[in-house]
Write a structure and sequence with these properties.
five-stranded parallel beta sheet; 43% helix; 16% strand; three-stranded antiparallel beta sheet; elongated; alpha/beta; 15 helices
Length: 445
């Protein structure tokens, strides 16, 4: 018996109680059954009786006893116990448990798949590291979670494109080129440049690939070092992520947005929508109309386009490529960016939260003597994803980053705050949030 089949059995028990006149409640479409945290509480548990108690006008435990009596008649159910305020703790017989294993083996790769998101085209962007240094420890969480999310969405029937946005435009690329040039000539990195052993390694590879580059004039040589070094770093990023088990369908170059006129196209579309205005020689997007705390500059008074203008172009480019939902997985340092991005989405005439979804993940910290170790590409103080894989292996690293999302200090602080407000309670060895106080159909673990 699978969890879905057990859920159906619980719904059938409710129906039987209603048909017998023992309960007067609307039939639930589905019932959530979950694994208890304490093994002794059974194979599965549900709080359906607590949900039905109010509409039934009866105590939760009394409703639970009625449902337990019906559920005990179900094939594959060995026992049902009423516990706590009205939980149903369910044990399956051995044949039913064995049936789950048989179902999984027979279904093979199709087990757990569905067509829930069939025909939905999703663009899932994650990692998107700058090509000015190796993929490091800070990128590993979204690499692990992003790839897992991709596979989950595909299992639900969605057509998912995994995309890596390559930040290959802007001043950081020029500084990278200058740094590689300096390393090739045995000089220290320029101010605000990139240091570390990896820059010298890139320089050696570029010199080997580009005969005569050391004899070129500085301006020409710097440009060549920048472009060749960029290609070296991009290929190393691809290989590192592939060794980590993550492959992208699209590596999208930021430069192409500027080279193809995509930024101007986006500005024209926003102006056509009536949300762009000119002030003080600059071009602005009226994002305050859509909940942002202030309007945002698209083009500065000197004619330079802002990063936000490129972001608008990138978003509309995704939509024009046919993606109905664009999911951005960003680091915690981008938290303040969510409001303006959602406003931009609305300014294009789209629906924030549906056409655009933004997921924020906390940074990964490496501790030394109990203190966070600051990592910096520019200082050359990074622990790379290759270092991590070599030390502990891919599977453990992916498992750690997926599960550590639930173990952050932020989660602990949130729980402490909710407890102080009296919105949480303990039952059956678990900690529950009183979401029914705010219109939810049941409390949540």
């Amino acid at each position: 018996m699978t969890p879905a089949e057990l859920s159906d059995a619980v719904v059938a028990a409710v129906r039987a109680a209603v048909d017998a006149g023992a309960l007067a409640v609307p039939l639930p479409e589905t019932v959530t059954v979950e694994r208890p945290k304490v093994k002794e509480h059974g194979d599965y548990a549900t709080n359906i009786a607590m949900q039905l108690a109010k509409p039934a006008g009866r105590p939760p435990r009394e409703v639970a006893e009625l449902l337990a009596a019906e559920l005990r008649k179900s094939p594959g159910v060995a026992s049902v116990e009423v516990a706590g305020p009205g939980f149903l703790n369910i044990r399956l017989d051995e044949s039913a448990l064995g049936e789950i294993a048989r179902t999984v083996v027979v279904a093979g790769d199709t087990y757990g798949t569905s067509d829930t998101l069939a025909k939905l085209r999703i663009n899932l962007e994650f990692v998107s590291a700058n090509p000015t240094g190796p993929v490091h420890l800070g990128h590993t969480r979204w690499a692990a979670v992003g790839d897992s999310l991709r596979r989950l969405l595909e299992a639900a029937g969605a057509d998912v494109t995994a995309e890596h946005y390559v930040n290959d435009a802007g001043v950081q690329m020029q500084r990278f080129g200058e740094s590689v040039y300096a390393a090739a000539h045995g000089r220290p990195a320029p101010e605000d440049g990139y240091g570390g052993a990896y820059v010298a390694d890139v320089a050696r590879q570029v010199v080997a690939q580009e005969p005569g580059i050391l004899e070129a004039q500085e301006q020409e040589a710097t440009e060549r070092f920048r472009e060749a070094g960029y290609r070296v770093m991009l290929e190393e990023m691809r290989q590192s992520l592939e060794r980590f088990g993550v492959e992208f369908d699209v590596w999208f170059s930021e430069r192409t947005l500027h080279e193809t006129g995509a930024v101007e196209h986006a500005l024209d579309e926003l102006r056509r929508q009536g949300h762009v205005y000119d002030q003080d020689g600059a071009i602005w997007l009226r994002t305050t109309e859509f909940g942002d705390d202030k309007d945002r500059v698209l083009v500065k008074s000197d004619g330079e386009k802002t990063y936000f203008a490129a972001d608008a172009a990138y978003y509309i480019n995704k939509r024009e490529r046919g993606f109905e939902r664009c999911v951005y997985m960003l680091g915690a340092d981008h938290h303040g960016y969510v409001g303006r991005m959602m406003a931009m989405c609305a300014a294009f005439g789209d629906e924030p939260g549906k056409n655009l979804e933004i997921l924020i993940g906390q940074m990964v910290n490496l501790l030394r003597d109990g203190q966070p170790l600051r990592m910096s590409k520019r200082a050359g103080t990074v622990v790379t994803i290759d270092d991590l894989v070599e030390a502990i292996g891919v599977d453990f690293d992916v498992y750690f980053h997926e599960n550590s999302l639930h173990e952050s200090k932020a989660v602990e602080r949130a729980i402490e705050r909710l407890q102080s407000l009296g919105k949480m309670y303990e039952a059956e060895g678990a900690l529950w949030l009183r979401t029914t106080d705010f219109g939810d159909d049941r409390d949540r673990v």
